[in-house]
Amino acid sequence: TSQFLAQYISKRFGWPLSKTGYLLTLRGVIHMGILLFTLPLLSKMLLQYYRAPVKDLILARTSVAVAAVGALFMAGSQIGLVITGLAVHSLGSGLAPLCRSLATSYVTPRDTSKLNTAIGIVITTGSLFAGPALAWLFDTGMELGGTALGLPYHGLAGSFVLCLVGLIFVRPPAEEEETDES
After folding, report:
1. Residue 19: phi, psi to the nearest 5?
2. Residues with Cβ within 8 Å of residue 122, at least 6 apart in sequence
3. pLDDT at 61
4. Over the stretch 28-40, which tens digit does the pLDDT of each residue have?
């Protein structure tokens, strides 16, 4: 979505691409802060009350919900709303590592590399479809005009909601399963 964001802001608000780069910097700074400070701090706090898989599940659900709300804001027609949405959406940047960590709690340590390979294949395959899907939504939004310009971010929010629905049905492994495999 980083490459798409610059085009979206440029088209929607008439900003030159050079000016949109500042928003990408803001996004990067928030991502770094979340991944370097906020998630480790929250993880440490939650580990006082929950097992690691439960902690990862709580944080993943929270991350995807925040990312969905941010994506909805980014579909807004005012630049302030879009910038707020960008900041909120960026708060959900820990979703991928949290889901990866959660997934590893379901496999034995010897199968972790196989799992990571499978996750990598799924991510690569997904990116083959995500780029064209966002481009199609953007093109459709431009044809429709008005509030439909935010269509790509409505689609992105919808995909996050689907992810949240999936995470709602995930149950952490039983404690004895986790300790037997360790």
Report:
1. -75, -30
2. none
3. 96
4. 888 898 889 999 9
Instruction: From residue 161, give the alpha-carbon distance in Å to each of 13, 59, 67, 121, 128.
Output: 27, 15, 9, 22, 20
Tokens 């909601």 -> residue:
161
3-state secondary structure (DSSP) of residue 172? coil
Nearest CA to 62 among 95, 32, 101?
95
Burial bucket for residue 161 (CB in 10 Å: 0-12, 13-18, 19+): middle
**Contact yes or no for 9/23 (Cβ under 8 A):** yes
Which tokens belong to 11? 């088209």
Tokens of 55: 């902690």
Residue 17 to residues 26, 28, 139, Cα–Cα distance (Å): 15, 17, 18
pLDDT of residue 20: 83
Q: What is the mean pLDDT of the chain?
A: 88
CB contact at 8 A, 73 and 95: no
Report helix, strand or coil for 72.
helix
- Burial of residue 90 (CB within 10 Å: 0-12, 13-18, 19+) is buried
Amino acid 74: pLDDT: 92
Count CB neighbours of 36 within 10 A. Answer: 10
